[in-house]
Each structure stands twice: as C-alpha cells, then as structure tokens.
Specification:
Its main location: membrane. It is found in: Membrane. Belongs to the nucleobase:cation symporter-2 (NCS2) (TC 2.A.40) family. GO terms for molecular function: transmembrane transporter activity. This is Nucleobase-ascorbate transporter 1-like protein. It contains 19 helices and 4 strands. The chain has a two-stranded antiparallel sheet. It has a domain of 277 residues. It is an all-alpha fold and 401 residues long. Helices cover 66% and strands 2% of the residues. The radius of gyration is 21 Å and the shape is globular.
Length: 401
C-alpha cells in the first residue's frame, strides 16, 4: 500500500477520531446500548483486494501509491455505506427480526466471537514472552483477585483488569526492548515484540485534527464498491449479534426490531464518515468491547459516552496516539483470547432458552457453527494461494475519479 510511518500514525489517529464520533452517535441516537464502534476485521479482505489492484501497484512512489489507494478505499466505503443506511432507516433490517430467536442468535453471536480465532493465540504465539504473561495476568486479576480491594473498598481488579494488565505488560515489554533482548532476533520477532519498531512516536506530530477528504477526493470503482458491499453485509450480521450480546451482558432488555434497524442505520452513517475521513476500513460494533462488559461488569451507557469523548480528544494529540500504537500486538491478542471467547460463550448461553433435547435444534446449532467456521476457511485457502476465489472470471472494472 505504501506510505511512511507518519502516514500510519495519521491513519491511526483518524480511525480513533471517527470511532469516537461513531460511538457517541450510536450511544445517543442508535441502539443506545453500551457498545463501542470501531474498525472491523470484516473489511480486511476487500481492503486487501483494493490494495492489490494492478492499477495502484503500478505507482512507483510509495507515498503517491498510499494516497491513491486510500482514496480508492474511501470511494468504496462511501458507496457501500448506502446499503446499510437504506436497510436500516427503511426498517427492512427489522423484518429479519423473526430470525433473531434464541436458536438463531446462538450460532450468530457465538461465531462473532469464535470466528475471530485467528486473531487470538496464533498472533499471541508470535511473541510468547509478552503474550503468555498478559493472558495469565488478565485471568488472574479478573477471576481470582476480583474481590481484593486495596483502596477504599474499591474493586479495582474487577473493574479495571484490562488497564492494569496492559500497563504492567507494556512496561515489561519496554524493559525487554531497552535491554536489547530483541537486538539479534529475526525481523518477524522484532516486529511483534519491540515497542519502538515503527518510529511512530518520533514521526507523529504533536497536534493533528482529522478532517473530511484529508487524503484528497475519493475515486470510485464498481469492482471496489461491490467488494466493499459484501463486507458491509457481513458487518451488519456481526453487529446484530454484538447488540444482542451487549444487551445480555449489560442485563438490559433485548433490543426490538426497530431499535436494531435504527442502530444499523446509524452504523451506515458511521461507515459514510469512515469513507469521508479516510480511516482505511469500515466500522462495526467492537466485539472485544462487548466482551469487556462481562469482564468488568460495567454496563453503563454513560461510561461508553465518556470513553468516546476521550477517543475524540486524544486522537488530536499525535504523540499520545502514537504511544498507544506502539503497544506490541501480542498484548492485544492475549486480550482477544479472553474477550472473544467470552462473546462466544454468550452466544452459547442463548441455548438455555431452547429445547436441546430436540434433534432438529441440535442439527441447526451444530451445522451452523461448523459451516460458520469451515466455509470461511475454504475461501481463505483460495485467497492465500491464488488471491481470488474458486471461480476466477478475470473481469476488470473501470475506475472513475
């Protein structure tokens, strides 16, 4: 895709800024659930397809290639957001609510968490000396020390296990980096373990305020737009499952059809903002933050609104965002092991409202879970080997600036 470390820091700040706006809109006008809106893994494949476009790869200058690629992603997001806006505000998405029974939501919510298994231990294993301590520390603080109250009877280990664990392991990784523990290790190890691997802090500006069309006017391509539309449909299903899980973990009333439709509509507005500002990806309800509702037992919507304000404020401080971007990813992977697993367990918990003595129900659950994991693996094998699906048409699309 090209681009420098400064461009990377700028994209991270823009993503954090727009995520704060989308979270605030969703908490105030959307479903009004304590759910954080952020970047989605569902958009990785269409974004990778756009990055690999031959017309963009022919640009030799890395910065120019980055700018043109970002503008192509912006155009695809702007077009694809229209589907979600129409389906949401027309209440069409609410018509599917009859399929949102406990039997239907169990595999949907379960796969929202379990479908992201490749983001867990496979990534944690890239730096086990950081990832394993993080995983053990999160489990220990949140489950075994949650009743310890060292300060004024405040259960800090129960309420803030993620913040405490990230701070401790991050300092530990900084010490390892400064002591030269990774100086003579392979490049892949340095990339995953070092805290100074990308020069983000030195290249980031002190202040930067993201604004619409900061990368230039978007470019529109039919092929790019259709690829992004498929990701939008996936994120809609993912968000619906996340809303159901959030309401259950927050001990709130399950959102009715019109609330789900309204939330999907505002999420479409959020994807439109992603395209206008140039975040490089679309947005959906953050699955890991839904898991945090169960881990911290804090389900207040006010907390989410305040956190959205913090995201907007700190995204304008370039150095602050760059410091957080320097956190080794295995630390987050250890959190994903706990949080995604918790969301998957919430999906399975919906089965308590169904008759599991029925062979029909067992077949529905088993087939849905198995195919939900197996079918993506089938297409991933084609993508990894030949960068296209099982049917390759060799078709091309015209790009319109």
């Amino acid at each position: 895709m090209g681009g420098s470390s400064g461009d990377k820091a700028r994209v991270i700040q823009t993503l954090l800024f727009v995520a704060g706006i989308n979270t605030l809109l969703q908490a105030l006008f959307g479903t009004r659930l304590p759910a954080v809106v952020g970047g989605s893994f569902a958009y990785v494949i269409p974004v990778a397809y756009i990055i690999g476009d031959s017309s963009l790869q022919r640009i030799n200058d890395p910065h120019e290639r980055f700018i043109h690629t970002m503008r192509a992603i912006q155009g695809a997001l702007i077009v694809a957001s229209s589907i979600q806006i129409v389906l949401g505000y027309s209440q069409v998405w609410g018509l599917f609510s009859r399929f949102f029974s406990p039997l239907g939501m169990a595999p949907v919510v379960g796969l929202v968490g379990l479908g992201l298994i490749h983001r867990g231990f496979p990534t944690l294993g890239n730096c086990v000396e950081i990832g394993i301590p993080m995983l053990l520390l999160v489990i220990g603080l949140s489950q075994y020390l949650k009743h310890v109250r060292p300060f004024r009877d405040i259960p800090i280990f129960e309420r803030f296990p993620v913040l405490i664990c990230v701070a401790i392991v991050w300092i530990y990784s900084v010490i390892l980096t400064a002591s030269g523990a990774y100086s003579h290790r392979p490049s892949i190890t340095q990339h995953n373990c070092r805290t100074d691997r990308a020069n983000l802090i030195s290249t980031a500006p002190w202040f930067m305020f993201p604004y619409p069309l900061q990368w230039g006017p978007p470019t529109f391509s039919a092929g790019h737009s259709f690829a992004m539309m498929s990701a939008v449909l996936v994120s809609m299903v993912e968000s619906t499952g996340a809303y159901k899980a959030a309401s259950r973990l927050a001990i709130a009333t399950p959102p009715p059809a019109y609330v789900l439709s309204r939330g999907i509509g505002w999420q479409g507005i959020g994807i439109l903002l992603d395209g206008l500002y140039g975040t490089g990806t679309g947005s959906t309800v953050s699955v890991e933050n839904v898991g945090l509702l169960g881990l911290t037992r804090v389900g207040s919507r006010r907390v989410v609104q305040i956190s959205a304000g913090f995201m907007i404020f700190f995204s304008t401080l370039g150095k602050f965002g760059a410091v957080f971007a320097s956190i080794p990813f295995p630390i987050f992977a250890a959190l994903y092991c706990v949080l995604f697993g918790l969301v998957g367990a919430v999906g399975i918990s919906f089965l308590q409202f169904t008759n599991m003595n029925s062979m029909r129900n067992l077949i529905i659950i088993g087939l849905s879970l198995f195919l939900g994991i197996s079918v993506p693996q089938f297409f991933n094998e084609y993508w990894t080997s030949s960068h296209h699906g099982p049917v390759h048409t060799d078709a091309g699309w015209v790009c319109f600036p």
